[in-house]
Design goal:
The chain is mainly beta. About 0% of the residues lie in helices and about 40% in strands. It contains no helices and five strands. Strand 1 and strand 2 form a beta hairpin. It starts with a strand and ends with a strand.
Length: about 55
Amino acid sequence: MPRELCFGNGDLMVTLDADLSIRDLYFPFVGMENHVGGHRCRFGVWVDGALLLGR
């Protein structure tokens, strides 16, 4: 399935879908094992004592 954004450096690749949710995470070899398996993965950031979650 196509992804909207792909970020990588040769050892790590992260892809995001249209909702900017992480869908693929390849490490340490791009194209080998997908650690997320295509499922929606959320993340958050702790700022000033509050957790800001992605969509």
